[in-house]
Structure formats: C-alpha cells, structure tokens
Task: inverse folding
C-alpha cells in the first residue's frame, strides 16, 4: 500500500502559516507561460494517517537494530545511538555550507581532526573528505591517477586499470567512469592475486591496480608488498579499496603496504548508519605525490584557524557540491574518539574472530571453496545442498529464522556464493543461533527442499517475482 | 575485550578461539606481513566514554554559529526550509535508518515502498516519466545526466548555461574531463536568463552538440524561459537542473520537453547539514529508462499474488554490469530521499503550492523593498522565484554589508564577488522568514548605507 | 524474554568517564556498615543487545501510531509529533525546578498562559496545574471540598460524596482517599442521573457530587443544570470529572453548567501521549470561592513578571514534589495553540461524529443498551452473540483483525460492556474497516465461536492466563 | 473541517451524518442545554501552524536559562545525571510512548515485559521483595507508603524525620490531613542524622505509632544510620525514602529491615523536566503485597505455554475495587519508568557502581576544597553521598554568593535559608561535573569571599 492510496482531497499532514504581507498576483511575478497549470499530484493525507503509514512501512524492514545482518562486504555493525544525537545538533545539521569560515570554525576543525585521524589509520599523509560514498571515493581515486599521468604526459598511453576477478562491481564501474579500460587479473587457487598473472598484465599501458584488501573472499592479500612492488616498478599506482577495513583497522595501514590511494567507507568501518541505502561517506587518503591533485576545497589550518583552501592550481576540481557528507563525518569522528586505539584494535580483533568462528562451524555443513583463515568475512557456496536448492533459497529461508541473509551471488568467482560478514557487534549467542539456523536449513534442503524453495513463509510478503519487475517495469504509482 | 559496542566477553572469546583452533586473536592476523604490522603506529587516542565525547563534540558545535540565533537569507543551492516534526519521527525509526540497500526485498518492503513513492513524487514534480531513488547531490546528478546524454546521443560536446550553480559547473568540468567530454559555456543576458542568441549561434555552428545543461531557477534565482528550447535543440538533450520547491508553482521542465531533469532535493525535508548529505534528484523519459543511473524500486507481486516491490532493472547497475553499468553509484542518499518523501506527503498537494507561493511572495516583497533603498537595485530584470541578486550602490563592498548584517544577527546572503559578480549579493527568502524579519533586513541595509555614507 | 537473560559478566551498555581526581577509600567516606556488600544484580548487556532487546519489545506493543485504539474513556487520539520535539527543548526538559524564578520566566509564563487557556475552557476563574494525572486531580478536588467544609466548620457532618453508579473507579477511590464516604446514586433508564434518586440522596451530610460528563456511557447529562441546583441548594459542591472533555471542548464549559471544580486530563483531551500508562497531567480549575485553598505554589504574574506564589495561608498544602508534569503541559499548550478555537470545536465535532457513526452502524449487529445519541463514546454489550461467547472473546478476536480492542467490562452498569471511543483522529476508512471487522466477528461468534474463544491467533503471544498470574504472583525475574 | 490532526473531509462528514441521520454536526450537540452552549465564550485564538507554534515555544524557551550553558550544582531531589543516548532512542519508539496502560496483555507484551524488568530492578536496588511499576513522584510515593502503613498497622500516628525533603513533608502533611493521620516530626542531630534519642523517646511514649518515615540520603545529603531502627520500631513500619543512585554503593534499606522503600527515580535516566514528570518508586515486603498501591506486571503463560506477562493483582486497583482500592492512582509515570529501566540496563552492574562512586568521590573532593576556604565549613559532620550543606562565613548571605556564581555561569546550589537554615547552601555533585568545573566552583567561591571582604 502506498501513501497515494490514503489520499483524499482536502486532507493535509501539516498546516503552514498564512502570508503575512500583501499578496501580489502570481502573473505579475512570473510570466503565465512559466507557471504550472496543474499542481503535482502529491498525496493528501492527515498527519495521523501519514505517521501510521510510515510506521507500518518501517515494520516491514529488517534492520541492524533487529538482529544479525551478516551482509558480506557491507559491515552492518551496530550504530551507536549517541552519534545520532550529535549529528543532529543544530550547529551541525543546521549549518549552511556557505555561512563563512569565521562562523564555522568548529565544523572545519571537526573535519580537519577527522582527516588527521583517518590519515593516521591509512598511513598516508593527505586526505579529502569530499566523496559521498565508497564508489565516489573510487571515482575520485581514479581521477587522481588520471591527473597524475596527465601531468607526466603519460595519459595517452596509460589507459588501463587492473582489477582482480574478485573485485566489487563499483571498482570496474569507477575505473570506467574515469575513462580507463578495465583489465581483469586472475586470482590463484588460494583466492589471492596471482603474481605471475599480475606480472604479465602489468604493462606500461597500465595506470594502476585497484585492490580490495582483504579481498571480497575475506582473504588478506598476503603478497601485497610484492604486488605493490610489481605495480610500482612498472610505473603504476596502487588503489586500496578500504571497504573492508573493519578487518584490519587499528592493526595495519594501507600506506605501510605500499598503497598510494585509499578510500574509507565511514558507513562501514566507522559505524555510521546505512540509512536504507545511504548516505555514506568515502574519504580518500593519498601519498604526498598525489596531494596536489586533491579536489577543492581542502580543509586546512593556519595559526590555529581553520579554512577552506581553494587555491590549489593542480587540483582536479570538485566532485561534490560542497565538502562531502558532513553529518556522516560527525558520527565517524565521535565513534573513533570513543573507541580510541584500544577500541579500534578490539573492533578488528572481534570482527575477525567472529567471522572465523562462523566459518569453522559452518564449513562442516556448507562448502567452503577457499578454506583458509579469513578476515572479517568468508564465502560459502550454496551448491550441492539438495535437489535443485539454490543459494537464493537458502537466503530466503534464513528470513524465516529471523535473520537477514548474507550477500549472495557475489563474489562472482564463487558459484552460488554466500558471503557472510557478522561484524564484531553481535554476541556469540546470536552467532550460535545463526549457526543452528544454517544447519537446520541444510537439513531441510535435503529433506524438505520445498520449504526452502517457497521461502520466505514468515515475512511481510512471500517470495517476490523479480523477473516480472524487470520485464514490465512499473516504477511509479498510477495516480489516475 | 568487551567495549560497549562489542558483546564478546573474555569467556566468549576463549570459546570462539577454541572452536577455531587458534591460540589468540593476534594469531588470526598472521596473514598480514609482519613488517606491515610492525610499522603500525597507533593514533595516540585513549578510549573515551560517551559522556566525554558528547561534551567534546558539543564544545566543537559551540564554536560555530548557532543557526537558531540568526535570521538566514543564505541560499545558493541550500535552503533553510521548514521541516515538520513528523519527518524526524519517521527518520529516527531504526528500521529505516539502520537498514541498508534493499537487496532482500521480502524484508525490505518498507524501504522499497517509500522508494517507489519517492520516484512517483519526483515524476510528479518534474513532469517526467521515470525517476531513480537518488544520486549523491544536485551537482553529481547533473554530471550523471551529462554522461547519460552522451551515452544516448553518442555526442561529446555539450553546452552549459552560465546560470548553472558555479559549484555544479566545477563538478561538471571535472567529470567532463574524466570522460573526455567538452563543455561550452553560454552567457546569460540582462534578464539573468540564458542568452538565447548565443545558444542559437552555437547550435547552428556546432553540429555535434549532445545537449544543453541549464538550471531553472538558476543560480541567480532567475526562472529560465524554457519555452522553445527543446525545439531549438532537436535531437540534442535538454537537461534541466531545478529546485523542486519551485515546481509547486512553476511549469515543470517535463512540460517543456526536457530529456533529463535533475536537481538538489535538500530543500525537501533535509537540513542544510553544512552541505552534506544532500539529495540528487534524477528523472528522465521512459524511452531512456535503461540508460538511467541509480537504483529504482519496481512494483511486482509475490508468490501469492500480493503487490510488493523489488529493486528493478538491476542489470543497469554496477554490481551486475560492472564497467558497463550506467553509473558507478552504489550507496546513495536513501535516508535523505525518505525525508523528502515524508516531507512531500506531509505538505501534500495544497501544502507544496502554498509553500512555494510563500517563498515567491516573500522574496518579491523583500526584493522590492531593498530596491527601494537609494542606490540599491536588482541586478537582473528576469522573473525570479525565492532568490535574487542585489547590486550594491557604487563603491559599496558586499563583504562590509554582510559583516554589518551579521552584527544584527542576520546572515544577509552570499557575496557574489567570490563568484565574479563584484558588487552583488545573492539573497534567498523562504517561507520561514516573517515580515518582521524582512523589514528588519531592509532597515539594517538602510542603516548600513547611512552609516557608511556618514 | 527479559533483559536479564541477555546478561553475561563483563558486558556493558555504556562506558563512563574515569575518576579525574584523587580517589579516596570508600570506607573513609562512608562507614563500612552503611556500604553495600553485594552490588544490585543489574543486567550486563552490550549496547547492541540492549537496543535490540527494547526494539524487539516495542514491536510487541500496539500503539496509537499503529492504528485505531478505541479504548473507551481513554481518548487515545493521535499525538502531534511537533509536541515531542518541543517538550524536549533543553530549556524545558533540562530545567531544574529550583533554578529560581529569574531564570525560569519562560517556563512560568508557559504555565501561566496554559492556566489561562484552561480556565477559559473550564469557564472557571482559578486553576492549579499540580496534579500529575486525572485521579490526582480528583483527589485534589476532594481535598478542596474537604477544606471548604473545614473552613465552614461543617466537615464533621459533611462526610459523604455522591457518585452515579456509572462512575469511573478513580472517583470513589479518590473520594475515599480524601476521607469521604462514597454513596452511589442511581442512573435512570436513559443512562443519566436519576433526579428523584439524587434528591433523596442529597442530604446535608453530603459534601458534594462527582459527575463525569458526558458520563461513562458517553451520554451527556441533559439535566446537569438541575443536578447542580439540587446539589448546591443542599449546600454541596459539584465536581466535574473532565476525562471526557474531548466530547464538548470548544463548545460548552463546565463552569456554565454550575460545576465548582473541574479536572482536565491533558493526556486525553489535549493529545499528550499516554506513554504506556503515563505520565499524564490533571489540572484542576475551581470557582473563586475555592481559589484560596489551591495547593502551593500557584503560578502568578505581577508587572509582567511571573512568580511562584507560596504565600497562600488557606492553601491545602501540596500534592506534588514540585509544580506538576511540566513537559506534559508544554505539549498540551502547543496543541491548544495549534488548534485555536476553530480546531478545538472541530475536535469535539469530529469525535462525536465518529462515535455516533460507529454506534449507528454497529447497533445493527450488537446490543446497544442505551440507544440514544452519544457524545465521544458509546457502550455496546457483547451479550447474546453466540454460544458462550463473552465480551472478552470479542476483544481478543479484534486483535486478530489488527485493532486494539475497546475498553471492556466497564462501565459496570452494562453487562459485558464494550466501551468504544474512536476519537476524531481516525479516518472514515479506518472506522469502516473496524465496523467490517466487528460484523465479521459477530458472524464468527455464531458460526465458529471457537475462533473467538481461542483468540488472539495473530499476536506476539496467544491468550494469556490471568488467573494464574493472580493465584501465584511472579512479580520479578528470578536472578539466581 | 479537516485540520492536520483530523482526517475527516467534508465528504466523509456528509457520509457519516447521513448514516446517523443527522443534518449537521451541530445537531449532535443538542443534548447540551441551549443556555450552556450559548454561554460558551471562545478563547480568542486563531489556529496556528506548526511552524508558528514552534517559533513561539522556542521563544518562550529562550526566555529561560539554557542549561547547556551553565554548570549545575542544583540538587534537593532532582539531579543532573548522565543519560546515555540509547534511552532517548528507545523512548522515542512510538510503540512505547503512544500506547496506554497494558489492559490488553497480548498486544502489550512490550510494556508488560519492561514493567516486569523494572520491578525486578527496583527490588534489586532497594533490597526489597516486591515493587510496583511507578507512582507519581517521590513525594506521593512516600504519602502512599504512609497510607499503606496505616492500613496494615491500623495505626494513625506516624513519626517523620525532619531530614526528609521539605517539599515531601509538605505533601505528607496534606495527605495526612486528608486521612486524619497524625505526623510527628523528629529533629536531626549535629551529624545531620535523625536524632535517635528523640526517636526512642517518642517510641516509648507513643504506643500507638504506626511507623517512622525517614529519608536516606536525606535532604542534606547525609546518609542516615538505618542500623537498628527496625529493631527499635518493632511492629511499626520503617519507611525509607531513598535516592536510587546512592544504592549503587550504599547498603539498601531492605537489608535494614525496612517495610516500605520509596524514592524519587528521576535520577535514573530522566531529565529534570522542571520538576515533572518524575518517577515515584515503591517497594515493599512480599507479605504486604496485597496492600501495595499501583500497577504491577506479573509473569504467566499463554494458551500454548509460552511465557508472557499480564497486569497482576488488579483486584487491588481502583477500576476493580473502587473505594476500597489500595490507591486511587490510575495513569502513572510509565514512560519515566521505562527510561529508568533502559538506563539501569545500559549502565549495568558495574556501571551503576562506578557512577555512584563518581558521585561520592566528586562530592567529597568539592566539599573538602570548599571547607578549605576560610570561614566556610560543612554544616553537618555525618557521612554524605553526593550532596552536602555548606555553611557560609558569618554575615555572608547565600543569595549573594549564588548570584555571584550565576554570573560565572554556575548554579551553585540551593539557598537553604528558604528552608529555615539561614546561612547555608545545599550543593549537589554528579558524575557529570569535571574536576575542572569543581575547581572553578571553588575559585569562584573564594573570589566572591575576597571581593565581598574587600
Ligand atoms: C568492496 C567494496 N568496495 C566498494 C564499495 C562501494 O562503496 P559504496 O557503496 O559506499 O559506494 C563497496 C560497497 O558495498 C564494497 O563492498
Ligand atoms: C472518566 C475517568 N475519570 C478519571 C480517570 C482517571 O484519570 P487518570 O488515569 O489520568 O488518573 C479516567 C482515566 O481513565 C477516566 O476515564
């Protein structure tokens, strides 16, 4: 049921003040031809009905506050509530981006300090907070690489970006958006970048490599230093997709691994809520060499005063209307301050512990194609469980057990993949309940596979027809 | 060690390590090269309690302007609009804000339903046929429109009206550079509108033009005359960036034949947030649907025939199509789009119209009164919505005027000398400003003039 | 599941700052014998588990924001969301009651202005906002009556309070608490106070009468002026229980009906949320004659300055630690300002309209013992629907249809009562759905009565055993 | 007419009137005597929009102290304690705050479960066996204890320690007057504790004493010596009013044989609220259960044997037992009790102890430092928890000191001259006060002394 179905002429959800000054005829202000003839058909609903509708909708969602949300690659950790209160302080949420530096010292200082902390965690000396999400950070990173080679006059030649075949979809898409051609480089049987393959692919037409570390199998690239050396020796740059930083935060730094560019997902590692799909924030840290190319403005400090530095002649320009997703930064900053070094270390420690625990327990029941110690996540295969049972069925059946399913069918290099990331914010009791559910489902797959194929049985709706939605897309409500 | 956010007790940890067969958590990190681990340098931060961190951030907050103490006339893309309390009540439902992208439709009907509503609302506002569920912000939405137009038309040259928000133009230039597209800027005329002669000239000259990017109301608040533009452009795309609130009154770009309509949706129920998160709006024609970037929710049925919603047309997206996706966007600005949905539903059909009219009337009242002060005039003569450019008397510096107003607790607007218009300020007026506040503004401007001339 | 079951030693939900000054040994500060040996066994839970637990609990509740909540006598109307934000302003919620008048002018002004408005709605010249709920207001009212007769030296004789047999339970309890003896006076066949009976009961031992108007049958006392006259002529005072004011607000005033004392329920008529049982607020308005007895302090105004008047020698004293439930008053004040006269009138108009609409439609299916025009609510009987079906069964079955049941088994003068108060904040569509459900249930009662007797079927729990809870009360969690 | 809170459109109204057979809404009110209706006088209020009313109330708010700008040492029953953000997150769940008393248990398990948890927590804190789910506030909880003690003991005379909060004593006197009970006040000694000799004297003299009402920590912050009191009282009730936070460290009244323990629960997760809503705590012995006032949740099972909760022992309550009920209370302070439940669960076993100790240590640090200033001294020598009485140097007026502190953005405490202690102030210190703030307080007191003596 959509809000439009609650609409009736004459209802309204909120009243507005009357006009407190003389009214002028519209036509004297705006030429008739530029005025709207028919008002947009917004719904007309009373405030009680409005609140009831969205309250009802909210209850049709599963969320982190409902329980385990082991969506691999997404780091669905608990979002500390105090951060919500802080991000809503009127001086933060109510600040206009053009109110001027003198009235924004605290805001700029917060951005500056957060940047310093993130630089410290990246092990890199420069940063921008401008990207609005991880993929936005990736795009920015690719633009920096582009600029780097443009400045050196190598752009015409360096047209390729290498990607492991396990890469997240945003990586090739971002590289492509920045005008690069994407070349896949293979993984070896351990799930890591195949060095021989890399050496072969790493020609002088290659601008750089994008690595996700740990990769999307949850496996740390043990030979990362060698990878960096191969790439650097051939004149390329290394991009570190930091989406999975939750696994090593407080223990290891991309900069120390030879990485030139790193993006953070503040909405993953640093616990800012995912908002049903966003907003996020994707700061990008870089080497000194790349620093001049960062987008304007850069938040800088001089004589205890913070300012926005626009005077950066080599900058690539701008990728966001203003400075990025500020109130997301507020949350991440508060989070890092609360945890401190010890807490950050505990985060990666417990995230990796929980993942390995689940992996060890579940591999007895499910196929584990890459059977190695993992970091924050691991990938099972749903294959071979029972007559015609697919990973999709397992996922839908998990819903009946009260859990959000893992990421499925990704990474592409594992057939029928189930990518499981518990995060550190879930109790062992909950992990054990999840294991029990997974085991039960495996049994059901053998004995009563229709239970899986027809799942979910206990959700606001039964299984939805995705094919139909693709074939005859209905993307807006019929209002006539 | 159990922090407040990690439920693992020492006992839990021991049990889990035992199940794994590891001796310590440390051991689980032995796959990271030792030298990398050894090089690790802590931040030097002691853990702090919630109370301490709250205190620290509140102190930072206090170093800023408290917007509740100022009367704001700041605009330029971000506006101080009324947000009814219902919006925050709904946004603080953790089922909404702690969920992620609705990959699992059956337990994401809340998100998918409002996305569907949002798409409908954006179509209604813009007069377009399809809309996505958000882009990062108005600037990147426009950049995505540029990319899409280039994909559809196969052209690499685009015309860009100078009336487009300067910061959007900068983003466009960056993106265009990435994709090897050319942007040709077209000047505005004395009305503050796109110089149509310049456009015609370019169109006759430039056979390879893929489209025109224009903003209405533009950066100066001027409502562009969109009539006839699509006819001039022919196959080339008409891409309009708009302020959705103005569409409560203004004829929507869709009715002028626009191919893509984008905009900044912050004004719809989102606070200024110091410039982010914002909300990129994106709408286009049905025929270009499969070239559209961004997520969409589509209606379908479940196994029992009941109506439900799923993420539709995912084959356009990066997680399926990878480098051939219609955009690299993944995480978007969903929660801001939810705010916009609730906001629009709360105001409703009548409410949005009323609100838009309050903006229009109040802005005109103030503009007229300022123009009545000796030496002050409106820079442009074109029709405007809720924002206008004031040209100061000869020799007067915007920065001084604005500083004087600040003393009176008024944020008087933007100093356009930072944007190349030396003697002017950009003043925005929303429904939140009262007549009393507008009169105070005029009084203070007049007083400043007096004091300065004394 | 209680929070205690999530507890494990070492977990915690929030950390605290360390001591930032030299620590002294506890025993040097407090004698050993006064120190606790065993800490209270509070649960030890992490913040994620804490939030998930209470989020889960919340979803086991039905609330106004979920839909129709026609609990008779409780006025479960929609609570405007802006009032929640306003009540939480730090200057309101953070104000200490003893911070002094000079720092509290806005707070006192708000109380003063609210008092003025309520006086206007009561049609009475004096008010106190001190009572924390309706029953507290009743008690205060009874104390004022007590004081009135004490001052006149009649207390020894005037020991009785008259109550119609339809009275709410708090009325006799409050009268009794104030030291009065309760005498029931009968209703007539129309459901109103029987004047002959009243005349008989209204002796010179009676201190006054407590009337609920409209009464708990939802029927307005048409002869209220006569009632007042009878009582006054015999030297008694009239107390008006204003719990049902939603039915006449903006249209008629108790003061104009000859009432001497009126209590308001801000959490009913004035839309402040019920909080799962409270807090409420029960201001009491009185005649000039009773004004001197109001509790201290009274919020007063002198020369544009607001102050707390403690200098009231005839005051009965105090019934609350401070000034009453201030942040509830904030909400009520904002509500009245938003509605204005026109809105208040619309409230009672629509509340009465909705009730009569439901009544007329439902009386076709259910017994309506008092078939008269009603005000904001009406009372059906669940008798005679089907083989052994009781009102309790109807109520539980309504849960399966997604509605909160009405108040049941009250008032006592109707057998198997169903007391239905829709309020004005529910759409006609929702009312029609409720009617349909009630009709369907009546059919079920005849044809499949076990469906009712075993209801609810679709609730977080099945029907709960109340008898067991009374027989072997378990009132705290076992922690050993 | 449809306002934003009333969904009835003119069409709906017409349809409903038709179903009723009435011609107008007006007609539905013809049962009210015409003269009454005619006498109605409107308030003279135009309806106002949310935006206008918000503005108006924010303006009122701005006329007050902004507590975020002051360092508070105010106590006297209401304290400025840390409230973690989780509390507000849970309280703003509309399922909790827009529900009412859980009459229908099956759809009120959320409320009934936390009530059950709350009762358990109160028992744990106080060392008692049963607790209800709230009373209006600390004062009325004490008054209800008085009534209950009188019911159980059949006595009408009670002893009241003067250390009990003066405003509670006033409420007690009012209630006692209503019920014809006698209260005899007992003085405190130089330690600030109940004068035990006076008690003994009364007990030997007054054979008809129903009980003693005492507060610990008392109004002066002094921890009463509860040891041996019950032994002195015998059958008579020991009724203790307490500050629940102190019970993180102090031996609970239950261990001293108290018959009823009450207290003000505001400190547990509720803001000061200008004195309301507050939270009355009430706990007693199992054997008096059926005489206890107030609502309780009890554990039971559903038809399938699953654990659940219902309102138990309703036969004590007014809606069943009417004038013979154990109290007239109906609506209570449920949401404040929920706040207390979440707050206590968030702090947990260790946390409450830590918090109590922070209060104790900080209060003692400050007390000692103030007592170190020339002429200043602590009025009482008994042990105290987080609050203490400072006696000013001869001739110094509390009001002047407090005014001087206010200039320095410090709310220095309560002027006890309003309570009969001419030369003293009552200073409360919570965990929120930092050493820096305490030192500032001392500095300012010293400076005031200097300035005044200069
Ligand atoms: C490995 C990886 N890289 C990049 C991204 C893109 O980040 P965002 O969604 O913030 O754009 C994701 C997000 O899911 C990811 O998992
Ligand atoms: C008629 C009537 N009178 C009095 C009361 C008592 O009000 P409160 O619950 O606020 O104490 C109620 C509450 O239900 C009521 O319905």
Result:
């Amino acid at each position: 049921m959509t809000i439009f179905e609650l609409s009736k002429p004459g209802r309204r959800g909120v009243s507005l003040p009357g006009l407190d000054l003389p009214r002028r005829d519209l036509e004297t202000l705006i030429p008739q031809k530029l005025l709207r003839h028919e008002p947009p058909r917004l719904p007309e609903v009373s405030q009680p009905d409005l609140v009831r509708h969205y309250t009802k909708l909210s209850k049709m969602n599963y969320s982190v506050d409902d329980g385990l949300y082991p969506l691999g690659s997404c780091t669905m950790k608990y979002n500390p509530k105090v951060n919500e209160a802080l991000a809503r302080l009127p001086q933060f949420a109510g600040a206009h981006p053009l109110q001027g530096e003198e009235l924004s010292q605290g805001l700029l200082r917060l951005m500056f300090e957060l940047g310093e902390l993130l630089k410290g965690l990246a092990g890199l000396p420069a940063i921008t907070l401008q990207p609005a999400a991880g993929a936005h950070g990736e795009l920015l990173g690719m633009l920096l690489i582009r600029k780097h080679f443009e400045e050196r006059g190598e752009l015409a030649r360096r047209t390729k970006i290498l990607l492991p075949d396990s890469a997240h979809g945003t990586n090739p898409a971002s590289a492509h958006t920045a005008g690069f051609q994407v070349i896949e480089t293979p993984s070896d049987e351990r799930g890591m970048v195949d060095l021989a393959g890399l050496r072969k692919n790493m020609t002088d037409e290659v601008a750089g490599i994008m690595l996700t570390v740990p990769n999307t199998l949850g496996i740390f690239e043990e030979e990362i230093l060698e990878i960096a050396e191969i790439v650097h020796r051939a004149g390329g740059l290394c991009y570190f997709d930091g989406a999975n930083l939750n696994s090593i935060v407080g223990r290891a730094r991309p900069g120390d691994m030879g990485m030139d560019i790193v993006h953070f997902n503040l909405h993953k590692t640093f616990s800012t809520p995912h908002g049903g799909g966003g907003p996020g924030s994707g700061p990008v840290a870089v080497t000194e060499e790349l620093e001049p190319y960062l987008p304007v403005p850069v938040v800088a400090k001089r004589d205890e005063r913070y300012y926005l530095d626009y005077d950066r002649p080599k900058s690539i320009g701008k990728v966001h209307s203003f400075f990025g997703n500020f109130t997301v930064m507020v949350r991440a900053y508060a989070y890092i301050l609360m945890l401190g070094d010890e807490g950050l270390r505990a985060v990666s420690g417990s995230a990796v512990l929980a993942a390995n625990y689940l992996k060890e327990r579940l591999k007895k029941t499910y196929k584990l194609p890459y059977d190695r110690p993992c970091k924050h996540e691991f990938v099972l295969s749903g294959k071979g469980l029972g007559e015609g049972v697919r990973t999709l069925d397992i996922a839908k059946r998990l819903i009946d057990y009260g859990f959000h399913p893992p990421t499925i069918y990704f990474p592409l290099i594992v057939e029928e993949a189930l990518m499981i990331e518990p995060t550190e914010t879930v109790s062992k009791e909950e992990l054990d309940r999840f294991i029990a559910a997974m085991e039960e489902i495996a049994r059901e797959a053998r004995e009563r596979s229709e239970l899986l194929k027809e799942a979910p049985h206990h959700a606001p709706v039964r299984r939805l027809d995705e094919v139909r939605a693709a074939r005859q897309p209905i993307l807006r409500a019929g209002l006539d | 060690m159990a922090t407040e956010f990690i439920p693992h007790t020492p006992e839990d940890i021991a049990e889990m390590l035992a199940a794994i067969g590891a001796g310590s958590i440390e051991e689980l990190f032995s796959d990271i090269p030792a030298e990398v681990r050894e090089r690790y340098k802590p931040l030097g931060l002691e853990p702090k309690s919630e109370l301490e961190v709250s205190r620290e951030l509140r102190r930072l907050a206090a170093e800023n302007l408290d917007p509740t103490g100022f009367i704001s006339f700041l605009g330029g893309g971000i506006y101080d609009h009324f947000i009814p309390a219902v919006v925050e009540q709904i946004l603080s439902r953790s089922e909404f804000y702690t969920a992620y992208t609705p990959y699992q439709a059956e337990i994401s009907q809340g998100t998918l339903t409002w996305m569907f509503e949002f798409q409908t609302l954006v179509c209604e506002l813009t007069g377009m046929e399809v809309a996505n569920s958000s882009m990062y912000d108005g600037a990147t939405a426009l950049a995505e429109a540029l990319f899409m137009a280039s994909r559809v038309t196969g052209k690499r040259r685009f015309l860009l009206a100078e009336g487009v928000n300067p910061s959007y133009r900068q983003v466009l230039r960056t993106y265009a550079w990435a994709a090897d597209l050319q942007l040709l800027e077209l000047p505005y005329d004395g009305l503050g509108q796109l110089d149509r002669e310049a456009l015609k000239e370019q169109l006759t000259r430039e056979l390879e033009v893929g489209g025109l990017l224009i903003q209405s109301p533009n950066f100066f608040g001027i409502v562009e005359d969109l009539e006839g533009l699509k006819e001039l452009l022919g196959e080339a795309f008409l891409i309009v960036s708009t302020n959705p609130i103005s569409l409560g009154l203004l004829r929507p770009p869709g009715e002028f034949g626009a191919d893509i309509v984008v905009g900044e949706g912050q004004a719809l129920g989102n606070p200024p947030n110091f410039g982010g998160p914002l909300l990129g709006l994106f709408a286009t024609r049905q025929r270009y649907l499969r070239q559209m970037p961004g997520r969409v929710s589509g209606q379908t049925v479940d196994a029992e025939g009941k109506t439900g919603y799923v993420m539709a047309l995912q084959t356009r997206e990066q997680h399926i199509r990878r480098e051939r996706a219609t955009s690299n966007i993944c995480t978007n600005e969903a929660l801001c789009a939810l705010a916009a949905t609730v906001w629009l539903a709360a105001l409703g059909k009548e409410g949005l119209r009323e609100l838009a009219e309050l903006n229009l009337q109040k802005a005109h009242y103030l503009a007229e009164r300022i123009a009545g002060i000796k030496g002050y005039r409106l820079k442009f003569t074109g029709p405007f919505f809720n924002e206008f450019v004031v040209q100061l008397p000869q020799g007067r510096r915007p920065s001084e005027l604005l500083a004087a107003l600040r003393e009176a607790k008024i944020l008087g607007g933007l100093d356009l000398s930072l944007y190349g218009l030396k003697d002017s300020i950009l003043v925005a007026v929303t429904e939140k400003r009262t007549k009393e506040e507008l009169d105070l503004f005029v009084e203070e401007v007049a007083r400043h003039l007096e004091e300065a001339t004394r």
Summary: Chain A has a mean pLDDT of 97. The pocket of pyridoxal-5'-phosphate (ligand 1) is lined by residues A 73-74, 133-135, 168, 170, 212, 216, 241, 243-244, 265, 280, 282; B 330-331 (CB under 6 Å). The interface with chain D takes residues 8-17, 45-49, 51, 55, 80-85 of chain A (CB under 8 Å). The first strand of chain A starts at residue 126 and ends at 128.
